[in-house]
Backbone:
C-alpha cells in the first residue's frame, strides 16, 4: 500500500508550498524587532498598530478600496449585458468583441499603463483618479465577461421564454429568472475582479501620481525607504481581509458551488 | 366564432430570414380538442407551435383565438400556455414558487394564490413536493410541475412540445394517461407536438400530419391509421410496402408489374402493412432475407421481383428459414388507396 504513505507526503508538501509564505509573513509581522526578518525577533503587536498610524496607508487603502469596488461594479454593469448579448444573440462580430474585451489580460500591464499615460492622461489632461478608475474597470472587464458568460452558458435559455409565456416582459424575465440564477457567477466575478484590482501593480505604477496612490504602490515606495515589519503586518491584514470575504461569500451564498 | 373554429390559423406564413418554414397554413382547431401535430423533425410543427405561443412572429397571415386576432399580441399577453420539452422550470425557485410564478405576475395574492397553486399541484399529484427544488425531482415530476405551472394560468390553449420524449417507456405510458385525464377534466384545448406516431395515435382526438411545412393530412387516429392519403403518411403510420400506381399495374424497381384486382382510377398509389401481405400463397415469389420475432407475430424481409417486401404472420405458424422461397400476394382489396404520392 505504497499509495497510503505517499499521498500524505505530497499533500503536506503542496500545503507547505501554498500556506508557507503566508505563515512567514504573519510571523514576521508579529516581530518586536526593528527590521523585517524571519524568524521574528520577539513577539509584539506594535507593527500591526503602526500600520493604522501611517497616514499614507490609510489614504492609499481608501483609494484601492474605491478602485476595487467601483471598478468591479463598473465592469459588471458593462460586462453582464455584454455577456448576455454574446451568449443569447447572434451578434455580428461577436468573436471580435470577445477578443477586444479579453485584450487587457493578454497585453502586459506595463504596456496598458504606459499607453494610458501617454495617450490618455497626458494629452487629455485627465485626472489621475479617473485614469486609474478606467484602467481598473478595463482590467476587470475580461474576468467579469468570462465568469458571467460561463454561468449564462450553463443556464438554459428556454426558462426566459417560459417566464415570458407566464406573463413577464423580456426585461422582467431577465431580472426575475436570469439574474437570480447567475447570482453565483456574478459574485465570483466580483470577488475575482476585486482581488485583481486590489493587487494590481504594473498599470497602477504608471498612473499613480502625487497624492493618488493605490495601496500596493504605496507599500512599494514605503519599503524603498523603511524596511520595518509594518509592510508584513499590512500584508497579513490584507490576507485576512481576503479570507474573510471568501468565508462570508461561502457562508451566505455558497460561493464554492459556482467557482 | 363557432366552437369548431376556436383557434384558427389563416394563411399563416412562418419564416426564418429568407427560409420559409411554413407557407400559408390554414388550420382550425375546436374548443376542448386534444390535437397532435405529427411529423418528422424539420417539418415545421415546432415552428407552428412557437408561432401560436407568440415566441415567433409570422411573416404574414393571422392567428385568431376565441374570436380575437392575436397575431400581433405579444407572448406575455396571450392566453396560451406552453410546456417545454425540457420543462424549463426555474432552478432557483421551489415547486410551489414555480407554479405560483405566473399567478403572482397576474396579481393573484394571499389565500387565492395559495388555493390555486395547491389545486394545481394536487391535479398533477405533487402536493407533497411543494418545497422541493426542480433539481431534486425526477424527469416525470418536473414534467408535472411544468404542466401545473401552465395549467394554473387557465390558458385557452395549452401547447406541449414533445411532452413524452424525455421520459422512459414506463413513465411515458403513465404520463400519456395523465395528460389525457388533465385535458378531459379541465376541458382545455390542447395541442401537442410529436414525431412519434404511436404517441399521436394513442392520445389525440385529431392528428395533423405535417411534412415540409405543409399539412399532409388531418384526421382522427382511426382515419390516419387506416386511410392514409399519401405515401408519406402511409409510410409514417406503418404501411411499409408503398407503391405508385401506373394504370392497372404498380411501379417497382424492376418495371411496372400487374397485380390481382382492379384499382380505382383515382388512386395514385397503393400501400400495404406487413400484416396485409398474404404469405404462403399467391403469384409472387420472395426469398427470406431477414426474420424477426415480435411476440405475437413474426416479421419477414423478402427479396422479390417487386423489390423488398415486409410481410408478417402469426408467430404460432411454422417459421421460415433464411433463404427459403415463399409465395406471397399483395391483395388490392386490402391495400390503402393513396390519393397522393411522390413524397417518399
Residues:
Amino acid at each position: 500500500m505504497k499509495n497510503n504513505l505517499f499521498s500524505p507526503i505530497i499533500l503536506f508538501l503542496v500545503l507547505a508550498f501554498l500556506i508557507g509564505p503566508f505563515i512567514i509573513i504573519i510571523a514576521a509581522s508579529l516581530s518586536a524587532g526593528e527590521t523585517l526578518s524571519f524568524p521574528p525577533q520577539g513577539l509584539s503587536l506594535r507593527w500591526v498598530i503602526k500600520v493604522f498610524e501611517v497616514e499614507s496607508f490609510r489614504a492609499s487603502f481608501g483609494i484601492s478600496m474605491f478602485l476595487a469596488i467601483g471598478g468591479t461594479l463598473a465592469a459588471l454593469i458593462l460586462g453582464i449585458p455584454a455577456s448576455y448579448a454574446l451568449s443569447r444573440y447572434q451578434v455580428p462580430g461577436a468573436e471580435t468583441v470577445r477578443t477586444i474585451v479579453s485584450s487587457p489580460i493578454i497585453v502586459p500591464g506595463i504596456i496598458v499603463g504606459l499607453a494610458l499615460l501617454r495617450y490618455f492622461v497626458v494629452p487629455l489632461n485627465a485626472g489621475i483618479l479617473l485614469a486609474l478608475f478606467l484602467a481598473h474597470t478595463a482590467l476587470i472587464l475580461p474576468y467579469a465577461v468570462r465568469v458571467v458568460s460561463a454561468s449564462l452558458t450553463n443556464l438554459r435559455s428556454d426558462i426566459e421564454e417560459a417566464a415570458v409565456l407566464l406573463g413577464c416582459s423580456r426585461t422582467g424575465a431577465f431580472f426575475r429568472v436570469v439574474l437570480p440564477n447567475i447570482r453565483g457567477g456574478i459574485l465570483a466575478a466580483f470577488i475575482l475582479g476585486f482581488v485583481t484590482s486590489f493587487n494590481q501593480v504594473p498599470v497602477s505604477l504608471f498612473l499613480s501620481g502625487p497624492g493618488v496612490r493605490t495601496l500596493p504602490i504605496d507599500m512599494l515606495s514605503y519599503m524603498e525607504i523603511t524596511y520595518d515589519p509594518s509592510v508584513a503586518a499590512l500584508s497579513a491584514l490584507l490576507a485576512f481581509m481576503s479570507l474573510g470575504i471568501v468565508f462570508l461569500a461561502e457562508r451566505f451564498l455558497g460561493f464554492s458551488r459556482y467557482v | 366564432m363557432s366552437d369548431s373554429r376556436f383557434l384558427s390559423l389563416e394563411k399563416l406564413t412562418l419564416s426564418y430570414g429568407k427560409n420559409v418554414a411554413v407557407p400559408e397554413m390554414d388550420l382550425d382547431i375546436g374548443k376542448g380538442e386534444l390535437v397532435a401535430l405529427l411529423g418528422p423533425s424539420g417539418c415545421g410543427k415546432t415552428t407552428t407551435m412557437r408561432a401560436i405561443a407568440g415566441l415567433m412572429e409570422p411573416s404574414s397571415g393571422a392567428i385568431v383565438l376565441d374570436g380575437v386576432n392575436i397575431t400581433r399580441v405579444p407572448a406575455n399577453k396571450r392566453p396560451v400556455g406552453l410546456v417545454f420539452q425540457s420543462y424549463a422550470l426555474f432552478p432557483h425557485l421551489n415547486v410551489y414558487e414555480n407554479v405560483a410564478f405566473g399567478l403572482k405576475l397576474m396579481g393573484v395574492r394571499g389565500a387565492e394564490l395559495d388555493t390555486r397553486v395547491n389545486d394545481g399541484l394536487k391535479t398533477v399529484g405533487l402536493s407533497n413536493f411543494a418545497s422541493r427544488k426542480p433539481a431534486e425531482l425526477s424527469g416525470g415530476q418536473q414534467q408535472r410541475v411544468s404542466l401545473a405551472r401552465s395549467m394554473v394560468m387557465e390558458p385557452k390553449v395549452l401547447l406541449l412540445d414533445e411532452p413524452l420524449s424525455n421520459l422512459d417507456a414506463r413513465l411515458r405510458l403513465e404520463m400519456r394517461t395523465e395528460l389525457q385525464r388533465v385535458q378531459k377534466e379541465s376541458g382545455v384545448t390542447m395541442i401537442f407536438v410529436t414525431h412519434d406516431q404511436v404517441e399521436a395515435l394513442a392520445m389525440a382526438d385529431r392528428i395533423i400530419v405535417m411534412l415540409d411545412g405543409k399539412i399532409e393530412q388531418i384526421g382522427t387516429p382511426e382515419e390516419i391509421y387506416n386511410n392514409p392519403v399519401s405515401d408519406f403518411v402511409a409510410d409514417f403510420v406503418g404501411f411499409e410496402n408503398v407503391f405508385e400506381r401506373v394504370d392497372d399495374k404498380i411501379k417497382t424497381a424492376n418495371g411496372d408489374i400487374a397485380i390481382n384486382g382492379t384499382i380505382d382510377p383515382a388512386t395514385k398509389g397503393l400501400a400495404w402493412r406487413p400484416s396485409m401481405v398474404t404469405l404462403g400463397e399467391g403469384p409472387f415469389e420472395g426469398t427470406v432475407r431477414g426474420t424477426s420475432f415480435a411476440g405475437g407475430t413474426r416479421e419477414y424481409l423478402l427479396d422479390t421481383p417487386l423489390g423488398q417486401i415486409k410481410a408478417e404472420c402469426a408467430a404460432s405458424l411454422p417459421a421460415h428459414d433464411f433463404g427459403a422461397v415463399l409465395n406471397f400476394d399483395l391483395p388490392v382489396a386490402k391495400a390503402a388507396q393513396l390519393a397522393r404520392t411522390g413524397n417518399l
